[in-house]
TrEMBL record:
InterPro entries: AraC-bd, Homeodomain-like_sf, HTH_AraC, HTH_AraC-typ_CS, RmlC-like_jellyroll, RmlC_Cupin_sf, Tscrpt_reg_AraC-type_HTH. SUPFAM superfamilies: Homeodomain-like, RmlC-like cupins. It holds the Pfam family AraC_binding. Keywords: DNA-binding, Transcription, Transcription regulation. One of its GO terms (molecular function) is sequence-specific DNA binding. Residues 185-283 form the HTH araC/xylS-type domain. This is AraC-type DNA-binding protein. It comes from Kriegella aquimaris. The keyword Transcription regulation applies. The keyword Transcription regulation applies. PROSITE patterns: HTH_ARAC_FAMILY_1, HTH_ARAC_FAMILY_2.
Amino acid sequence: MKVAEIRLFKGIDKSFIFYHEEKNFSSWHCHPEYELVLITKGSGKRMVGDSIDQFKDGDLVFLGSYLPHEWKCDKKYFNENHTFSGEGLVVQFLSDFLGSDFFNLPENAGLKSFVNTSSQGCLLFGETKRIITEQMVAMKHLSETDRFYKLLAIFKVLSSTTEYSLLSSPAFVENYRSDEMIPLKNAIKYIMTNFQRQIRIEELLEISNMSNTTFFKTFKKTTQMSFKSYLIRLRIGYSCKLLTDETLNITQIAYESGFENISNFNRQFKKEKSCTPREYRRNFVS
C-alpha cells in the first residue's frame, strides 16, 4: 500500500492554503507542505507516521513536511446517499512561503525549533489548542489579508508552546525520507492497516519484495526493534486507547487490538506498561 502525494490547490495569488474540508478526508498520503489540521466534526482512527490513535471532534495536529498521515472517520460519517458528514479545517504552507530566511531569523528561533520537531507530528492540547482552534475557526470568515495575520498569530503561539505530544517515532520519520526505503514503507503501512488481525510474514515479504533475512534485518535497522516487538507495541498502544472507553470489556479490547487470547494480551500489556489492562483503566478513570 503506497503513500500517495496529495496536494491541495493553491492559487498564484496566495502564499499559503486555508481549506475547509467537507469531503471524505484523504487516505494515507504526504506532501511537502507543513500542515495544521483541526477536525471540527468527526471521529475514528488517526494515523501519523507509525502512530495510531483514536480521534474525535477538536483534534488538532501540526504535521511536518512529507510526514505520512490519514484521518479515517467512523462509518457513521458516511451516509446512505454516499455523502460525507465529517468536517475539518486545514492550513498548509511551504517552508519558504515567507522567504527562504524567515524561519532562520533570530527572532524565530522558538518557531523554528517547533517546526523542526513537527517532523514527528505534534498533537496540541491545553491553552494552545484552545487559542489556535478559535483562530482557525475565525479564519473561515476572514479576508485573505486577515487570514494571513491570523496565521502569524498562530505562529506566535507555537513559538513558545510546550503543550504538545509527539506522535511518530524518530526512527520512522528519519528512515521515511529515503526513496530506498519505499518497499519497507509499504510493509509498515500494511502492518498499521492490518495489525488487528494475524499478519503472516509471507504477506510482508511479498509487499516489500524482500527475502526473509533482508526484511527482518532492514526492519530492525529502521525501527530499532524486531518486527514482533513492533507489532506488539502497536497493538498495546491501540488497546490503551480502547481502555479509555468503559463500554468495552477487557476481552473485547484484546481481540479488537489483534491478540488471539486474553492471557497473552494481559502478559504483553503488563510487560509493556508495567501494569495490567484493568489497572491501566482504573488509573485512567481516577
